[in-house]
Every structure is written in structure tokens, then in C-alpha cells.
Amino acid sequence: MKKFVLFFGIILFAASLLAQKFQGLALTPPMGWNSWNTFEVNITEDLIRETADIMVSSGMKDAGYIYLVIDDGWESKSRDEMGNLVADPVKFPNGMKAVSDYVHSKGLKFGIHNCAGRTTCSGYPGGMGHEFQDALMYASWGVDYLKYDWCDHGTGDARQLYSTMRDALYAAKRPVLFSLCEWGSNKPWEWAADVGHMWRTTGDVTDCYNCQGEYDLGMIFILKLQEGLEKYAGPGHWNDPDMLEVGNPGLTLTESRSQFSLWCMLAAPLMAGNDLRKMSPDILKILTNRQAIAIDQDSLGKQAYLYMDHLSKRIYVKELSGGDWAICWHNTGDQAYFQRINWAHFTFLQGEYEIRDVWKDKVTGTTAKNTEVEIASHDVLMVRLSKKR
Ligand code: GLA
User: Fold this and answer.
1) Looking at the predicted structure, is the pLDDT value of residue 328 above 60?
2) CA 242 to ligand 1: nearest atom
3) Is 117 a residue whose pLDDT tops 80?
4) Which of 227, 284, 328, 359 has an alpha carbon 20 to 30 Å from 91's alpha carbon atom?
5) Does residue 17 carry a pLDDT above 80?
6) Which of 60, 61, 146 is nearest to 100 (CA)?
7) Which residue in 53, 101, 152, 204 is the catalytic one?
8) CA-CA distance, 91 to 88, in Å (whole number)?
9) Strand ranges in 131-263 using DSSP code E only, listed in sequence order
10) Which residue's alpha carbon is nearest to atom 11 within ligand 1?
């Protein structure tokens, strides 16, 4: 009996050693590009190679966009006779390892998509029941990032299914950033900090400011759904309000800049989702704004909270390392408004701060004097405050 208890104890101990995610992979919110928002399942090896090239040549990689993630649609419609996942032979004639090698040769990291259910949302083989086999395959392809979706899960338990995949990735021994795409259905913020490095908090974002589709939501609705979740985010575990629509046709340039600003305030993962081959200089400027990115990537890892919500005026506040603060005013209305800022009203400020306007990229004054500024419809004013020395 004693032997049995000891044996059982050892098994449990071994299992608990396996039950962990890879640590240290996302100390700041992950940044990269993902194929879904623009291309859906219409992806090819050529597109991925070209995108990797542009991530480097445009300066995006230097700005922090490291992960190139291939979303749904890369697979063949069925597994091979051994049950292995197979790349679509027409879209990816050289297989996923060749794509991954190319991405790595550019100094980028390689990400892929699959699903905790039986099939992905676009009807390709999902991971359910194949987790350990698939994790080994991903490791052999050099996968660095796995986005794991939630379609066709039947009565499956989210926490259990995602934990199984976490364990499988860990057992395969290649560090993989694990991105849970469970749409917030089972409140992953309450249980997923030990499971993955980021978790979706909502259904899919779409490229419009305030529309609602059957399954997708404009940026303003997604934003609303983040309220109150700030306490769950931090280094290694982030709320994911879905990818960027910056540069996609349904957003104006102003709205693109606002989405970027607000996602940076939220310490959101910054996954660009535009066609980099057609990116205008203005969009590249938004995506690579160093001041905004520094706010997103701040080492304190705090997500902004909604400080005030009044009519069409929303104010977000994000605490930064070194005693700095980021504040962002967002005009959700159809008309511009004048904002008079009496800095003394922000009682968390102590003493005088220098004000840096993130989009003008210059110091515009100090908090000793009121600021007056016009904020256009759907636009933002985003500032960083640093203690005056
Ligand atoms: C779901 C996800 C999207 C995308 C698609 C792919 O809708 O939420 O981000 O991955 O599946 O089919």
C-alpha cells in the first residue's frame, strides 16, 4: 500500500511539474502581424514571405513587431494517415517548416493558428484529442507562438482544454507563446494567467468604428468590453482586445490612430492586421510611433482604466514605470469638442509634470498651466506626463 501511495505521489509530482506555461515569454504585450483581418483563409507562402520581408524593410521589426502569425486556413482539410496536421499543398507547397525557416531567417518569430475544438472556425482540423501530437509537430516546425481558437468545442471545458494544450506545449520543450482565443466566453481572465500569455476578451474585432456584425464588433464596442478587466493584466499575462485594424479600409486615418492609441493604453498585444504590401506612409507612421509603443510596452505592465466616461468624452489613465503617467482623451461623438484640462483635477499627480503629446511627438508644456485643445470626432489626445526635475 505504502509503495502504491509513493508511486501515486511521484506521478502527481511529475504531472505538476509539467503543468505550467513557458515563463518569461511575454513580459510586455506581444507585438507582431497576423494574417486574419485582411486575408482570412486566402494565405500563401508567397504572401507570408513578402510580409516577412516588409516587416523588416519597413522598420516594423525594429519598432518591436516580432511575431509573424499565420491564422486559420493554412491546413489541409484532413490529417494524414498518422493523424498529423498537414499544410495545404497548394498554399504552402514547401510545408510549414520552410515558411518558419524563412521567417526565422529574417530575425522574426513564427506563429501559427489552431483550435481547441474538433475543427477550426473555417472548418480545418482542430486540436481536440491531438494536443500532444500537434505540439510535437509545432516544435519540429519551429513554431514560437500558438493562437488557439474556440470553435467546435462541443461540451468541452475551456479551462481543461486550454490547460491540456499548455501541458502539451510544455512537454514538447520548445518555448511557445500561448495565445488563447476563447472570446471571453468563460472569463479566461479569471483562470488563464497560469495557462497562457494572453487571452481574447471579446468576439472578433472588425474594421469599423461603431458597427456590430453577427459575430464581430467595431472598435468602440470592443473597447467598452475591456472596462474592469484591467486588474487581470500584467507581465506574462495580458487581456487581448483582438488585433489591430489600423490601415484597413473600414477605419479612417483618425480612427486607425485612435485604435492604436487606445490599444496601447490598454497594454494590449499589438498584432497588426493590414496588408503590409499596400501600407501607406501614414499608416506605417501610426504603427511605428515610438512614444505610443513605449506606453504599451511599459515594464510596469499596467492596463489603463477608464477614468471618466461622460457623454462622448472618455478619459483613460495608465500608470507607467518611473512615476510617469499616460492619459488619453477619446472623442466618441460626431462633433469636435474643446477640452480644457485643469491638471489639478487629476489628483494622482504629485507636483509638476512635463507634458509630451504622443502624436505631435514633442513636449507641449507642463501641468502647471491649464491646457486647451480641440479633439476631433473619433480622435484622441494622448499624452505622457513625466515628473519635472
Ligand atoms: C475566430 C477568431 C478569429 C480568427 C478566426 C479564424 O473567429 O476569433 O480571430 O482566428 O476564428 O477562423
Assistant:
1) yes
2) 9
3) yes
4) 284
5) no
6) 146
7) 204
8) 6
9) 145-149, 177-180, 198-200, 204-205, 216-217, 238-240
10) 121
